[in-house]
Amino acid sequence: MLLSTATEASTATATTTTTTKATPTSSPDKKKKKRIVVAVGGNALQRRGDRLTIENMLKAAAEMAPTLAELAKENELVLTHGNGPQVGELALERSAASFDVLGAESMGQIGYVLAQALQSAGCTAIPILTQVVVDQYSDAFKDPSKFVGPIYGSIEAQALAQSLGWTVKPDGEYFRRVVPSPPPMEILQIEAIKTLIEHSPGTLTIACGGGGIPVARVPANPQTLIGVEAVIDKDACGAKLANEIEADGYIILTDGGGIWENFGKPDAREMKEATPEYLKGTKTGEKFPGSMGPKVQALIDFVERSNKPGVWAAVGDLKDCAKIVAGEEGTFIRRDVKNGVTWRTGKKGPPRKESKNPPPF
């Protein structure tokens, strides 16, 4: 509210009237929005058993969009996403293309699909083609570990490796192509992302899709960038993004819920809250280096690297997104948790699915 007051002062020669305006005060009832980064896996746009088509991607995006749009009304939401199935499909179609180019193509494709679905749900979303600097001489390039593309038998895999220069590794009883997965070092479009968040309220920013387009600086001329044959882990990049924009929370959405002890066994139980120290001390997720392991590490990294008080990270099922924000579902990582960990009661863990056939991507 603007308050105006008139003060009259009389002197021997004149009477002067002065009008002053008080500084406006914000309403005490207005709740400050939380800044939250939400990471959605690439598999969220490809349902199990469905073909990877634009139609199926649009359908899946339309189903998740209303929840994300509602969260964006109440929070400063930034969305990032995986691209495993999509970049694997593109790599099959264009075997001669490098993974930085394929990553850019998948980012544009998925960004369009998500933006269209969110706009239909009443939320304006702006995808940003994001380049992320990596160290092209890091150990990740000495031992590629990121699985991409479909499964192959041993003879076919070796033939492809020789003819196309691929690196292949066993994935169960089959073989798949692997590419380096270096850690993110620098998000080049971070200032543009911050500008959208701070000066375009109500707009949802989509950034660092697929972990970002991997690029490196030329040592002799650091201003010059070159593309890198790699796929950056989107959860690790999401954690860095959340730290860079000083987010209050970081959520990783999966199709398997939170963090479970004895997953798939009769005595399985889900963590409600845990500290980074507890997770590291119990080596949580290390038995699953291709799935939960990188997610747990990304959650820990965000909480430990943040300078903000009260920050949190969470992991949970995509369908429970709103309940995760409300603290009713998923596993939360915080700095201060009594005894290091608490457990959700009355929940039975999902059965572990054993299969000789790994997923197609």
From TrEMBL:
<feature type="compositionally biased region" description="Low complexity">
    <location>
        <begin position="1"/>
        <end position="27"/>
    </location>
</feature>
<dbReference type="GO" id="GO:0008804">
    <property type="term" value="F:carbamate kinase activity"/>
</dbReference>
<dbReference type="GO" id="GO:0019546">
    <property type="term" value="P:L-arginine deiminase pathway"/>
</dbReference>
<feature type="domain" description="Aspartate/glutamate/uridylate kinase">
    <location>
        <begin position="34"/>
        <end position="309"/>
    </location>
</feature>
<dbReference type="GO" id="GO:0005829">
    <property type="term" value="C:cytosol"/>
</dbReference>
<comment type="similarity">
    <text>Belongs to the carbamate kinase family.</text>
</comment>
<dbReference type="InterPro" id="IPR036393">
    <property type="entry name" value="AceGlu_kinase-like_sf"/>
</dbReference>
<feature type="compositionally biased region" description="Basic and acidic residues">
    <location>
        <begin position="351"/>
        <end position="361"/>
    </location>
</feature>
<feature type="region of interest" description="Disordered">
    <location>
        <begin position="342"/>
        <end position="361"/>
    </location>
</feature>
<dbReference type="InterPro" id="IPR001048">
    <property type="entry name" value="Asp/Glu/Uridylate_kinase"/>
</dbReference>
<protein>
    <submittedName>
        <fullName>Carbamate kinase</fullName>
    </submittedName>
</protein>
<keyword id="KW-0808">Transferase</keyword>
<dbReference type="InterPro" id="IPR003964">
    <property type="entry name" value="Carb_kinase"/>
</dbReference>
<keyword id="KW-0418">Kinase</keyword>
<feature type="region of interest" description="Disordered">
    <location>
        <begin position="1"/>
        <end position="33"/>
    </location>
</feature>
<dbReference type="Pfam" id="PF00696">
    <property type="entry name" value="AA_kinase"/>
</dbReference>
